[in-house]
């Protein structure tokens, strides 16, 4: 049976429109994808091409520091406000929960798999602090830490930062800040669900002296 020419013409028009639409969608997807930074684009723009000498270890290392692969666990919780205040320098005040009076604190547990100074592990004790005393929040969940992004004059204060390898410790001391070696009792077991046994010094930072 013969097919009318107008139907053939309509089918051809529809086919052309469908193909054109598919091409437009594919081009749009390609454009959006190409606009996003590549996985290592930051490292191309800021290459680790400098060199610095670490006299303590008699080693030369690359700068700036690059972290290519790591796992991070953030443990948010509440600490005794007086104990936190005792660990802060002048001008910093703990942000507290309006109902409980507890201060906001966080443990950062990081397993650096590949960096410019090799693999290492890190434990950080962090408090949420304010420029002025008496700053409180009513939040009662782990999202309370987001106050650093919503309240002017509120920020995070790193009390302790422990590492478990000599090279990144020396690198940090000379080029990035005063990092400390992990004290006795620090355990980081990534094979058992990132289990961390904090040393006494870290526990005192949260619970207060002699507790």
Helix-strand blueprint:
Layout: H1 5-35, H2 41-45, E1 50-54, E2 59-63, E3 67-79, H3 81-86, E4 93-94, E5 96-97, E6 103-115, E7 120-130, E8 136-137, H4 147-150, E9 154-163, H5 166-176, E10 180-181, E11 187-189, E12 195-197, H6 200-207
Parallel strand pairs: 5-8, 9-10
Antiparallel strand pairs: 1-2, 3-6, 4-7, 6-7, 7-9, 11-12
Structure notes:
With about 210 residues, the protein is α+β, with helices and mostly antiparallel strands. The chain has a domain of about 140 residues. The chain contains six helices and twelve strands. Strands 3, 4, 6, 7, 9 and 10 form a six-stranded mixed sheet that branches. The termini are far apart. The C terminus is likely disordered.
| Anisotropy-based shape | flat
Helix content: 25-40%
β-strand percent reads 25-35%
Question: By helix and strand content, what is the structural category?
Answer: alpha+beta
Mean pLDDT: 78
Mind describing the biggest β-sheet? 6 strands, mixed
Order of helices and strands: HHEEEHEEEEEHEHEEEH
Cα-to-Cα separation, first versus last residue: 94 Å
Tally of alpha and pi helices: 6
State the total count of DSSP E strands. Answer: 12
Low-confidence stretches: 5-9, 190-199, 201-211
Radius of gyration equals 27 Å
